[in-house]
Amino acid sequence: MTLLSVRDLTVKFKTRESSVTALDGISFDIARGERVGVVGESGAGKSITGFALMNLLSRPGYIDGGQILFEGQDVTKMTPKQVRAMRGNRMAMIFQDPMVTLNPVLTIGQQMIETLRAHRKLSKEEARQIALVKLKEVYIPSPEARLDQYPHELSGGMRQRIVIAIALLLDPQLIIADEPTTALDVTIQADIMDLLLEMCRSNMVGLMLITHDLGVVSQVTERTMVMYAGRIIESGRTRSIINDPQHPYTQGLINALPQQTPPGSRLKQIPGTMPTLSAMPQGCPFHPRCALATDECRAVMPPLTQYGEVQVACHEVQRLHRELAKMEAAQ
């Protein structure tokens, strides 16, 4: 059953001259309990997607068109009161830096109790008991003591666990995790991702994991969307995309993984950089960095087309599939 349905979502940012497009008509669905990864370089539009879903875009950014249907309600048409009732309650977000979420002048307990009482009719003691249960669920040692501590008294890994506990406080249907392990060391990263996966599985919570790490995506998610310059350029089951990437950009991301390079060799990288919003090339936005680019790529934006279990936006992939179809028809 579909939990979230996004259709032709367009996000723009006003500039002094006119406006620039950060998300260009993206569409996707997330089912209840499904884990979806959103992958791409910095500037691809991953975080903007998460902020738009939560209706957290601030000026000069704004939603210019499209629908965000969450449990049948269009988020873009909600009143401020409806948005407050949804945000943190039915849909929650985990940010890159836990200190963005945690207030440094309030104790952990004050913040968790305040969150609960903002959405539920609970006494302070009832809210405190629920907070304790959630801290235990995310394996916080000595949870009673932690409730009375301030964020600066805790380690980075413990702060991120507390942020996950806060996200789960009100039993949301969907969690948007925006690079939840970026600021942590490798061993803590693995623990946090295992914890997030366990929480989502045990509570049947949908997860939208925003990351640049394809290794994490392959271990945690069931489906993956690859974004480039504000568009979804490849989408499908994670196994299909990792094992047989179709788009040249996705292939480049996978080839750039350290484990794809023999020891002692230089790491592979995609040449060039992501185009800026104010200087978006005509046609396929990836063509200036693509070794397979043709005149058609430089002139025409490729549509997102279904091929088996995967959707791909690439003229070269379309050409290859047309040739395969002709060969099969000739046999």
TrEMBL record:
MF terms (GO), sorted A to Z: ATP binding; ATP hydrolysis activity
SMART domains: AAA
Statement: the UniProt record of this protein carries the keyword Cell membrane: yes
Membrane topology classification: Peripheral membrane protein
GO biological process: one example: peptide transport
Primary subcellular site in the record, as a coarse category: membrane
Alphabetized UniProt keyword annotations: ATP-binding, Cell membrane, Membrane, Nucleotide-binding, Transport
Residue ranges occupied by any ABC transporter domain in the UniProt entry: 4-254
Localization per Swiss-Prot or TrEMBL: Cell inner membrane
CDD domains according to UniProt: ABC_NikE_OppD_transporters
PROSITE patterns from the UniProt entry: ABC_TRANSPORTER_1, ABC_TRANSPORTER_2
Gene Ontology CC: plasma membrane
Family: Belongs to the ABC transporter superfamily.
Protein known as: ABC transporter ATP-binding protein
Source species: Sagittula salina
